[in-house]
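User: Show me a protein chain along with its predicted structure.
Assistant: Here is one chain, sequence first, then structure tokens.
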Amino acid sequence: MREIYFDNSATTRAYPEVVETVTKVMLEDYGNPSSLHNKGLDAEHYVRDAAKIVAKHLKCLPEEIIFTSGGTESNNMAIIGSVLARRRHGKHIVVSSIEHASVLSVMAFLQNEGYEVTYVGTDASGHVNPEEFAAAVREDTILASCMHVNNEIGSVQPIAEIAKLIKEKNKDIYFHVDCIQSFGKIPVIPKTMGADLISVSGHKIHGPKGSGFLYVKKGLLIRPIIYGGGQQKGMRSGTENVPGIAGLGKAIELTFTNFDEKMTKVSALKQHLVEELTKLPEVFSNSHEAPHIASISFVGVRAEVMLHTLENEGIFVSSGSACSSNKKRESAVLTSIGLDEPKIESTLRFSFGEDNTMEEVDEVVAVINRILPMLRHYVRG
């Protein structure tokens, strides 16, 4: 059976060149970057080269990059590291209510530790209002965090405007932006965005799982959350994952090759799917600007039923964020934008990558045209 993979926001297939790079490092250039001999120096060069690649595309300095195990660690390091460094200045944090679990769970942890967290909701289109976000900032606010692209509906937040307003109100505030769904899809430039900390994951851009980075603006003080041998200037101890870091660097190089052409194609796939599916009765789009994410509600059929029926047809999609889709709870994002329960419980996420084709979109539309009436008849019958 052929497979159609429309779950690229959950993870992506690694580029063949990434696999080759990872394999070479593991089998040939396997030294420890902390070792003083040539094997160690060769490994260290991979880490330095990857930092230069990241810096080139973020338009920042290589020394502003800390390599991590992925988006979750980057988010944890950014948030916990910031509040530990600034706890004498206050214990108040402002965050959007539609963040990924790797942000919201940290906020819950910090609340248990005595920090005060203010959650800012969205409008019906899934966007945070910058004025409302800034209004929540106080003199004792030490950190604000807002994702760039929402992982469920693809709404792009007005990060630069939020940054401007919150720093006008509190010039010392740290501003963290989760760019895990935006890096490699839309422009991510920390200076123009006004971001002090940016989180990115490698496996969302055809890199290895277990790879990622955190951008930390030069001069910003955060505390490490992993201690040991003092690697990465003491900010993230532990022997560097050189194969993962090298593979991440290669993935970034390839992601930004013919970037505009790729994203134009991906956006066209998304738009075609949305246009065709919303022609069907009681099918609604909750999708927004991001070029690669489509959120569709098939009222009358539970998302899990539709997902597994599509899986039986060789089509792979998601019922929401991959990191939380196995939990039996309503989506905070879909609730925030005001969807009613029939839409929330019937929503699937389709997310596209550069390998997908228009023929695949047409085939998925044809399959859904065939199975949706059957599933509704079965449920209502």
